[in-house]
Amino acid sequence: MPRHTLPAMSRRTFLASTAGAGLVVLHPFSARAQAGQAHLRIMETTDLHVHVWPYDYYADKPVDTVGLARTAAHIADIRAEATNALLLDNGDFLQGNPMGDYIAYERGMKPGDMHPVIAAMNTVGFDASTLGNHEFNYGLDFLMNTVAGAAFPVISANVVTEEGADPTKDATLVKPYVILDRELTDGAGETHPIRIGLIGFVPPQIMLWDRKHLEGNVTTRDIVAAAEAWVPQMREEGADIVIALSHSGIGAAERTDMMENASVPLAQVDGIDALLTGHSHLVFPSPDYEGYAAVDAATGMIHGKPATMGGFWGSHLGVIDLMLERDGGEWRVVNTAVETRPISQRNEDRSITPLVDSEKEVLDATQADHEATLDYIRRPVGKTAAPLHSYFALVADDPSVQIVSLAQAWYIEEMIMGTEHEGLPILSAAAPFKAGGRGGPDYYTDVPAGDVAIKNVADLYLYPNTVRAVRINGAQVKDWLERSAGMFNQIEKDGDEQTLLNPDFPSYNFDVIDGVTYQIDLSQPSKFDSSGELINPDANRIVNLRYDGKPVTEDMEFIVATNNYRASGGGAFPGADGSTIVFEAPDTNRDVIVRYIVEEGEIQPKADFNWSFTPLGGATALFETGPKAADYIDSLQGIDIAPAGDGADGFALYRLTL
């Protein structure tokens, strides 16, 4: 293999010209390097999820927080600041937004076709990538046709097509590692050969997450076990340094078999010099990882080795700087530094300021597929037999919340098949995100009956959460609902014109749990305050809680489908503090809703009225909603609601009779 200098300028003409337009300030490592010393910058993107353009396809509008076209501007700068640079991607590039779905479900990937994310990565000039778990979402043929277009090696050491006596005897789906022959320029301007070893890893849980595509075709090895086998072989083949491309999160320090987030024990493997991490959609170094064993969240070290995680969707570029010294024909690491560079910043007023502009060449390389994706998101992917609206979501079972619950339960039922949790009752918790409040009288979900386009899903589910499942008992289900019932003020029996909704309680914390039936007794005080603190231990607003027509007992066990925010403790819900999570999905709730609609063809989002208020002797309470609620009031069943005039600030006032 011929040797190349770093960076390989012939592959990066546009980036070099961009960097040369301004004053270049060398990194201190490059500035201080002496004869026999060389500064190597390792740049990481991770979890791109097809976000090439700075565009939110769900909302159908440009955004400043995502996009490889923006990250590319940092890449140009960093190459200019260093004598030698290497650009690596840490996986999950192939799926995760409507552009990816457009290619997979409509355009297709025949042999010889070019995927837009690969076209963009080729334009930027990546040196290598590893596979992430989402690379398998569309099947193996789609994956292999895609990576065939890459002008860089794609590696993964623990996805196996034929298992050997030990990992080094395995036949792997792609190359387990690659050794790049390069030349480094030292501080005196002399060039020296170096062999840079790159090895990739993916969570073994792909065999669960994409069982339908992978079962019978591949198996997976434990990440650390694969590293312990392959890294010594890489060193024997002459790798001077070894960089692990770990599409795996920074988690527990204690090693367990088949860990999903194995980057901390992976860092202990002898022979690995630096780690790229990902999968978790976080930034490292950052305060997110303060207190983690063997992790220095300030300096970016794991077990004393430099590591980075460059956010997600192109939000950050991870950078590891290595000062290398040549000693007797071999290179060794003598100093390190780690940083991340964001493409935008959030201001105190919650506005976003972009920090870089998009690189035109990256946009040009994907322009046609971007425009085709816009056509795709604006066309129907299914139908809804009834309107999806949230005007009465806080006072009655609601079709917009119902469809989210149905999609989550449908997904989790498939995901837990073959696990120890299979056969347990599956419930689903969802809340109305767009329900007026500070968003104003027009801030409601409103999708008419008929065609449903992908961009309508943003109206159903605002946030890029990922699906989670928790395993909890009947007592926790009841208290979860008690916490949710804090949405309402206490109502006196036989009282008139009382205020129904607690203005301090956000609608996204009003979880409705489908799969059980229950009533809310508003004559009782709330058991929890608006922040989730227990204030009335003996209160029981949730009554007649039943599953399959039978009373829910405290010791019954359930699987509850929800999102990562809630399952990890967001909102302080009993039973959802992070300790009860039994399944962490690789997919966003939005993606699951889209897949559900595509699978069903026509959805039937009729509210099943699994919850209601207990009668209170004809007491009445007032609440505000959007003026367009008038179009849907006739569809309500089993609840006495009538217009009561105008509310404040453009809202409409309604009266609920209990």
From TrEMBL:
Record's GO cellular component terms: outer membrane-bounded periplasmic space
Subcellular location: Cell envelope
Keywords: Hydrolase, Metal-binding, Multifunctional enzyme, Nucleotide-binding, Signal
Listed cofactors: a divalent metal cation
Stretch forming the signal peptide: 1-33
Main localization of the protein described in the UniProt heading: other
Domain 5'-Nucleotidase C-terminal: 445-574
GO BP, one annotated term: nucleotide catabolic process
A GO term for molecular function: 3'-nucleotidase activity
Catalytic activity: a ribonucleoside 3'-phosphate + H2O = a ribonucleoside + phosphate; a nucleoside 2',3'-cyclic phosphate + H2O = a nucleoside 3'-phosphate + H(+)
InterPro entries: 5'-Nucleotdase_C, 5'-Nucleotdase_C_sf, 5'-Nucleotdase_CS, 5_nucleotidase/apyrase, Calcineurin-like_PHP, CpdB_N, Metallo-depent_PP-like, TAT_signal
Domain Calcineurin-like phosphoesterase residues, every copy: 40-281
Record family assignment: Belongs to the 5'-nucleotidase family.
Protein name: 2',3'-cyclic-nucleotide 2'-phosphodiesterase/3'-nucleotidase
Native organism: Silicimonas algicola
